[in-house]
Design goal:
about 120 residues; alpha+beta; Beta-Lactamase; five-stranded antiparallel sheet; about 45% helix; globular
Length: about 120
């Protein structure tokens, strides 16, 4: 998974990335450190809040969460069991990041499926 994150970072404005479980546990990150656990837990909470809000407002499924600040953007995108959290510069090309994240999530899903089959 770490190699997948490294590959995703190439030629993008991604600053940091994290692979988390939807229950808030971190699986890996591009920047090991103490704050990773907090970021994973907060991101999982945001996913749940986003899902519930979309269900209540429009009976829709969550695709991604985008948080935009003056200097940084956070994108949270996930599948059924895991999510990918990326931070990037606020001026970054998020379209390219969306594509890279989608491809990375597909690879991570394959990695996890193979890990649980063995």
């Amino acid at each position: 998974m770490t190699e997948t994150l490294e590959e995703m970072h190439k030629h993008t404005d991604i600053i940091e990335s994290y692979v988390i479980r939807k229950d808030g546990l971190i699986l890996t990150s591009s920047n090991p450190g103490m704050k990773n656990h907090r970021i994973a837990a907060m991101s999982a909470s945001l996913i749940e809040i986003g899902k519930k809000t979309l269900e209540d407002v429009g009976n829709d499924d969550l695709k991604r969460v985008l948080i935009t600040g003056d200097k940084i953007q956070i994108i949270i995108m996930g599948s059924a069991s895991v999510a990918l959290v990326c931070s990037l510069d606020s001026e970054a090309n998020i379209g390219m990041v969306f594509l890279k994240m989608k491809k990375a999530l597909e690879k991570i899903a394959i990695i996890l499926k193979e890990a649980y089959l063995d």
